[in-house]
TrEMBL record:
Keywords: Apoptosis, Cytoplasm, Golgi apparatus, Lyase, Neurogenesis, Notch signaling pathway, Transferase, Unfolded protein response. Its EC number is 4.3.2.7. It catalyses: glutathione = L-cysteinylglycine + 5-oxo-L-proline. InterPro entries: ChaC, GGCT-like, GGCT-like_sf. This is Gamma-glutamylcyclotransferase. The lineage of its organism: Eukaryota, Metazoa, Chordata, Craniata, Vertebrata. It comes from Rhodinocichla rosea. GO terms for molecular function: gamma-glutamylcyclotransferase activity; glutathione specific gamma-glutamylcyclotransferase activity; transferase activity.
Length: 192
């Protein structure tokens, strides 16, 4: 079984896997339009994690697909069901994952977790500045929402430099403009 992650799963899967591949799925765009009051938010300060929405065939969402085998399958699906579906409100879908590798064969069918507009935690569109302002003040049991945004932006920069994600980078830019002295390193993020 392959599992595609496009948010915190790209740097913190939380389950054992056999292999991983960087790549993309077509037709979906990543958006910080989902709400969360558990992982990196609270009842008082809702976090903005990402979801993906079906836009058009030209759209691409980059992330990581994890291959799980044997005993890893049940354990990873049980863990992800709690993390993504029960606590996050995400639904599961099957998508065609296209590995980044040049010699990759056909697309791979992968399971993905998506929060739809019908989800009660769905926040919908907002300006990048409003999303950034909410990210700055949100934290929960998994850490601060700033870490979530910056780690995702770093993943895109270092693993998918050819890909565009205007929404993600516009929110990062808005966050940095609100906090002009923002400086972080991998070590400082791990301390938060």
């Amino acid at each position: 079984v392959w599992i595609f992650g496009y948010g915190s799963l790209v740097w913190r899967p939380g389950f054992e896997f056999t292999s991983r591949k960087v790549g993309f799925i077509r037709g979906y765009s990543r958006r910080f339009w989902q709400g969360d009051t558990f992982h990196r938010g609270s009842e008082k300060m809702v976090q903005h994690p990402v979801t993906i929405l079906l836009f058009d065939f030209q759209a691409c969402t980059w992330g990581v697909a994890y291959e799980v085998r044997g005993e890893q399958i049940a354990a990873s699906l049980e863990y992800l069901n709690m993390r993504e579906a029960v606590l996050g409100g995400y639904d599961t879908k099957l998508v065609k994952f296209h590995p980044q590798e040049k010699d990759a064969e056909e697309p791979i069918l992968a399971l993905v977790y998506i929060a739809t507009p019908q989800n009660p935690s769905y926040l919908g569109p907002a300006s990048e500045e409003d999303i950034a302002a909410q990210i700055i003040v949100s934290s929960g049991c998994a850490g601060h929402n700033i870490e979530y945004l910056l780690r995702l932006a770093d993943f895109m920069r270092y693993f998918c430099p050819q890909a565009e994600d205007k929404h993600l980078f516009s929110i990062e830019e808005a966050l940095i403009s609100i906090l002009p002295c923002l400086y972080y390193t991998e070590e400082s993020l791990e301390e938060t």
